[in-house]
Amino acid sequence: MPPSAKSPIQPTSRKLWRLIARRFNNPTLSDGSLNYVASPDMVTTYVGDQQRTINLTRLLDDDPGSTNGDFKAPQIFDFGPDFRVRPTSFMIQARTGFPHRSQGTNVYGFLDGKAWTKLTEHMTDCVTMPQTFPMGKDKQAAYRYLKFQVDEPVLPTDPAYPGVIDYGEIHVFGERTLMTK
User: Could you give the C-alpha distances from 57 to 45, 146, 172, in angstroms and in order?
Assistant: First the structure.
């Protein structure tokens, strides 16, 4: 059959190809959130403006007692120049025993290369239970960077570690997409 002729197999093949591509580009966990540790180069991390390794696996292990590290600056996820993430909601859970270290967190996205956009309408509370923050439709855009930042910290309860920020779990619900050039 000539290449320009329609084959009854082609639509099915295209659907299958899109499904396979979606699974590789947008791996998910059992709760439907993005598995941003599915491959080692899926996310580059920063603490403040310094590239620094954050133990992302610990943020997806369903163990709020595990820690991804104790930091004193916002944690930034970079999905890379070829990908964007279009979040619909976030689930943030404080580290067990340290809910004050993540209280006051907002999530921001970097879209236009000029300014961070605040994506969450409410900050995290000082609780150890998972907190889910849906996003309004007007904020559901494709972002290269996501930043988890404590905007209103509480008074430190441990004078040896003032200003420490850490999380037990961070789940991003939405879709990771490949940018076309």
Answer: 12, 17, 13
